Amino acid sequence: MPSAESPLPVVNLFTDGGCSGNPGPGGWAFILQHPESGKEIEHAGAEQLTTNNRMELLAVIRGLEALKKRSQVELFTDSEYVRQGLMQWMAKWKANGWKRKVDSRGKLGEVKNLELWQRLDELIAAHRLNFHRVAGHSGHPENDRCDELAVAAYQKFLGR
């Protein structure tokens, strides 16, 4: 008799990243919530010289890295870059040997932030992922908190 696969634990992952200048000092942040237990963790980090897109990706990566076991991840982010990458671009890049089309003639070139996309690909393979896009700076409590944490993280590089 085949055994039914046990349901995966559900976690909510809220992420945000940003920069002061692009490139410039940047920060990332995530909040992980386990609705069943009510547990919540938040983390943030920063880099002195980076881009907004790198920080958006790092927020998702660091959040997924914090998970201890395979989970059903409900990912909430305001990043259109992350959304399009996960929902459209990444499958094409992988099919093209991690290259992207750079012109209308089909010429292939480098994927920007390749090492981060490849790490994200590894991490999402270990989980089930549902993507939810939220509007940034719209009063979404967790997104606003992630923005606050990311900004606070990079301000140490601004001398404030």
List the helices and strands and how they pair.
Blueprint: E1 10-19, E2 24-34, E3 39-50, H1 52-65, E4 72-77, H2 80-95, E5 99-101, E6 108-110, H3 114-125, E7 128-133, H4 141-154
Parallel strand pairs: 1-4, 4-7
Antiparallel strand pairs: 1-2, 2-3, 5-6
Helix pairs in contact: 1-3
CATH fourth-tier homologous superfamily of the domain at 10-84 and 128-157:
Ribonuclease H-like superfamily/Ribonuclease H
Helix percentage: 25-40%
Widest beta sheet: strand line-up: 3-2-1-4-7
* Rg estimate, integer Å: 17 Å
SS field, number of helical segments? 4
Structural class call reads alpha/beta
Strand percentage: 25-35%
The CATH architecture of the domain at 10-84 and 128-157 would be 2-Layer Sandwich
Give helix and strand order, one letter per element, not per position. EEEHEHEEHEH
Low-confidence region ranges: none
End-to-end Cα distance: 64 Å
Number of strands: 7
**How would the global form be characterised?**
globular
Mean pLDDT, rounded to whole units?
Answer: 92
- CATH level-3 fold name of the domain at 10-84 and 128-157: Nucleotidyltransferase, domain 5
Largest sheet: 5 strands, mixed
CATH class of the domain at 10-84 and 128-157: Alpha Beta
What would you say this structure looks like, in words?
With 160 residues, the chain is α/β, with parallel strands linked by helices. It has a domain at 10-84 and 128-157: Nucleotidyltransferase, domain 5. It has four helices and seven strands; from the N terminus they run E-E-E-H-E-H-E-E-H-E-H. Strands 3-2-1-4-7 form a five-stranded mixed sheet, with helices on both faces. It is globular. The mean pLDDT is 92.
